[in-house]
Design a protein that fits this description.
The complex is a heterodimer of chains A (252) and B (213). Chain A is of the alpha/beta class and 252 residues long. Chain A has helices spanning 32-42, 62-72, 86-95, 104-108, 111-120, 153-163, 184-191, 210-215, 226-229, 235-244; strands at 5-13, 16-21, 24-30, 46-51, 77-80, 99-102, 125-134, 137-142, 147-152, 167-172, 198-201, 221-224. Chain A is globular. The chains are: A alpha/beta (252), B alpha/beta (213).
C-alpha cells in the first residue's frame, strides 16, 4: 500500500512566510516557525520550505529558521531555494533538514543531482520542477517561474531520475496559488514515465481537488500552501476526507 | 539515568535524533570518541545514505570496535535506518560489504517488481503502519512496548534488513504486498528501519521507551 503524504509547503522570504499567485504579488503572512508548528500539530506528514529569494546564507536566512523548526517539529523537513553545491546541501542538513530540493542549479549543472545523490543518498535529493504549459506540453522554468530552461518537463523528469534524484517536487506554475485544482494531466504525464515518488504541488483549493490528482494523476504526495495558510482547510480536514474517500493516508 | 550517546561518524541528520531524544527528556550528546562510545549508558547509532559509506565512515573514525565493545556491555543500543542496517552481517548495496554483525542476516535491495509487472517504487518513502512478527506480546520489554500496530512511522530506504532468524524480527510493514523489516532485536541490540525522530508523536514515544528502558 502506498500512503499518500500530505505536505505543508511554506514559501519563505526571510524572516517571513509569504504567499503569492503564480509566484507573483507576494504577501507576508508571518513567522514561518509558527506555521510549521501549527501544521505539524495538525498532522502534516512533511514540511517543505522554499526560500523564494534563494538567500541561503544571509542574516536570518532560511537555515536559521530551520534550526528552530527542528526543536519542536518531528516530521521530515525539505529545504529548497538557493542550493547550488554539495557544501550548501551539507549546510542545510546540518541545520536540521532531511532533504534538499534543487531546481535552478540542477538545470544549470545536471551533474549536481548525481553528486548530491552519491554523497547524501538519493532519498535526500529532491528534483524541483516548475512546469508551465506550452504548445506541445510543459516546459521547466526556474527563478520562481520566470526563467525558461527550454527543457521539456517530461524529458527532464526522466533525466533527473537517471541522474539520481530520489523524488520529484512537481509544481504547476499555471495553477500555483490559484486554488483552482491541480494540473492532473501534468502529474500523470510525469508519474507515467518515472518510478520515483512524485509530489504534486500547485492549485489545491478544496478537498475534492485531492481525488483526481491521486486517482488519475497517481501522485505519491500532495503539497499545499494557500488553503492551509488562509485556514480554509486544515491537514486534519484533508486527512479525514482522504480516509472517507478511500485515499490511503497515514492515520493518526 | 537518561544519558544517551549518539555516534557521530559524519553520516546523516544526527541533530534531529538529538533533538528528539532531548524532547523526551534525555541528555543526548554527539560523540566520535571511541572511549565515550564504548562506555556509554545508552547508545544510538544513526545514519542515512549508502551502507558502504556508513561503514567506511565508522572505520575511518575508528568506531567499529568501540560500538562492538559497547554492545558487549549489555547496555541498550539502538540503530536507526542505516544505523539499523549496519547492525547486520553484510549488505548487497553497491557490492558486498561487511556490517557490524551484531544481528545475523543480510541487507538486500527492495524488489521493485511485484507479480511480474507492477512497479514498487524505491526509495520506499513515506508513512507505514507496523505489523508484529507474531503478536504484540513480542514488543513487551522492547522500545515498542508503548506502541501499537495502528501507528504509522516514517520510512525512507531502498534496501532492507533480512534477519537470518525470525526470532530477531520484531516488526514489519507492508510495502505494496512486500513484508519489509521495520524493527529487529537481539538481546540488548535493537534496530529500527524507520525514523522515530521523524515520526511525530508515535516516534517520540519509542524514543521515550528507549531512554526509560
Amino acid at each position: 500500500m502506498r500512503n499518500i503524504r500530505l505536505i505543508a509547503r511554506l514559501d519563505v522570504k526571510a524572516p517571513n512566510l509569504v504567499k503569492g499567485i503564480q509566484f507573483e504579488g507576494l504577501r507576508k503572512l508571518g513567522d514561518p516557525n509558527a506555521f510549521a508548528l501549527k501544521y505539524y500539530l495538525q498532522g502534516a506528514d512533511e514540511i517543505f520550505y522554499e526560500d523564494i529569494v534563494a538567500s541561503l546564507y544571509e542574516r536570518n536566512s532560511l537555515l536559521g529558521i530551520i534550526e528552530q523548526t527542528t526543536d519542536n517539529v518531528f516530521v521530515p523537513i525539505t529545504v529548497g531555494g538557493g542550493i547550488r553545491s554539495i557544501d550548501d546541501v551539507a549546510a542545510a542538513l546540518r541545520a536540521g533538514a532531511d532533504k534538499v530540493s534543487i531546481n535552478t542549479a540542477a538545470i544549470k549543472n545536471p551533474d549536481l543531482i548525481t553528486e548530491v545523490s552519491r554523497r547524501f543518498g538519493s532519498q535526500c535529493m529532491v528534483l524541483s520542477i516548475q512546469a508551465k504549459h506550452n504548445n506541445h506540453g510543459w516546459e521547466a522554468y526556474y527563478d520562481n517561474g520566470r526563467e525558461h530552461s527550454y527543457f521539456d518537463v517530461i524529458d527532464w523528469a526522466q533525466k533527473g531520475e537517471k541522474l539520481g534524484a530520489g523524488e520529484i517536487m512537481l509544481t504547476s506554475v499555471d495553477q500555483e496559488g490559484t486554488a483552482k485544482g491541480f494540473d492532473v494531466d501534468l502529474v500523470r504525464a510525469v508519474t507515467n514515465v518515472v518510478s520515483i515518488p512524485v509530489i504534486a504541488s500547485g492549485g489545491m483549493g478544496k478537498l475534492e481537488d485531492i481525488t483526481p490528482v491521486v486517482n488519475e494523476g497517481h501522485a505519491d504526495a500532495v503539497a499545499m500552501a494557500h488553503v492551509l495558510h488562509y485556514d480554509n482547510l486544515t491537514i486534519g480536514n484533508i486527512r479525514s476526507y482522504c480516509i472517507e474517500n478511500t485515499i490511503p493516508v497515514r492515520t493518526i | 539515568m537518561n544519558e544517551v550517546v549518539i555516534v557521530d561518524y559524519g553520516m546523516g541528520n544526527i541533530k534531529s535524533v538529538q533533538r528528539g531524544l532531548e524532547y523526551v527528556g534525555a541528555t543526548a550528546t554527539l560523540s566520535s570518541n571511541p572511549e565515550v562510545i564504548a562506555k556509554a549508558g545508552r547508545l544510538v547509532l544513526p545514519g542515512v545514505g549508502a551502507f558502504a559509506d556508513g561503514m567506511r565512515g565508522m572505520e575511518e573514525a575508528g568506531l567499529v570496535d568501540a560500538v562492538l565493545r559497547f554492545a558487549r556491555t549489555g547496555n541498550p543500543l539502538l540503530g536507526i535506518c542505516l544505523g539499523m542496517q549496519m547492525l547486520l552481517e553484510q549488505s548487497q548495496e553497491y557490492g558486498n560489504h561487511h556490517g557490524l554483525g551484531l544481528i545475523p542476516g543480510d541487507v538486500i535491495e527492495i524488489p521493485q517488481k511485484n507479480g511480474g509487472h507492477f512497479y514498487r517504487k524505491t526509495p520506499h518513502i513515506g508513512w507505514n503502519a507496523l505489523q508484529t512478527a507474531t503478536s504484540e506480546d513480542d514488543w513487551q520489554q522492547t522500545c515498542l512496548s508503548g506502541s501499537s500496530v495502528h501507528e504509522f512511522f516514517y520510512f525512507v530506504h531502498s534496501f532492507m534488513a533480512h534477519p537470518g532468524s525470525d526470532t530477531d524480527l520484531l516488526a514489519q510493514c507492508d510495502y505494496n504486498g512486500l513484508p519489509v523489516t521495520a524493527a529487529v532485536k537481539k538481546d540488548n541490540v535493537t534496530g529500527l528501519q524507520f525514523h522515530p525522530e521523524k515520526s511525530g508523536e508515535a516516534g517520540l514515544k519509542i524514543l521515550q521507551q528507549f531512554v526509560s528502558q
